[in-house]
Amino acid sequence: MALVALPLPVLAEDLVFQLTNNSSHTIANFYTSPTATDDWEEDVFGEGVFPAGNTVPVTIADGSDQCVYDMKFVTDEGVEFVETAIDLCQLAGNEYTLTDAQ
Predict the structure, then answer these.
(1) At the top level of its lineage, which domain of life is listed (predicted)?
(2) CA distance 44 to 69
């Protein structure tokens, strides 16, 4: 009897990290999207806001096997900050920190 090895599909894992707001702004909206796509996913915070000085856990469970994401933050004043090509699989300490310098 011959054994046949078939390739198994790569299973996507959720991306989990801590998001720290070290900026001087309250973040009203936070969007992510794999860098290879042109559209933003839904607002991660939903109806909530993310005040300055806080840390929250973030889980991206979009079924993608991608690690590199773009992130868009919108303050409660409507100012947008966009960070591109962030490798969420390689975050030091599993933490991303938003600062005013961005």
Answers:
(1) Bacteria
(2) 13
